[in-house]
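INFO  loader      accepted 1 record
INFO  loader      residues=98
INFO  predictor   begin
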Amino acid sequence: MRSTQDIVALVVCVLICFAVAAIGSVWTARSVGSWYKSLERPSWTPPSWLFGPVWTALYLMMGISVWLVWRDRSAATALPLGVFAVQLVLNCAWSGLF
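INFO  predictor   done
INFO  writer      dumping tokens
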């Protein structure tokens, strides 16, 4: 039974992280075409097509990481999970604010 709960928890953790990414991308997508293209960027700037896969991988790893901490279920995980939640809220807010 624990493995089913773990799989559900993993899916929930990843979906929460992807939801934050989706909210941030909605806020950013409308303006990125105008201001980002007008920036003077260094020659080593990655191509635009690379950002989607990289951000997807990062948010996937964030979801897996928070699940690994949650899976421990000890009293010591409360602080790291709380810090992660605050970080996730700030991460989402960043896109809306800037």
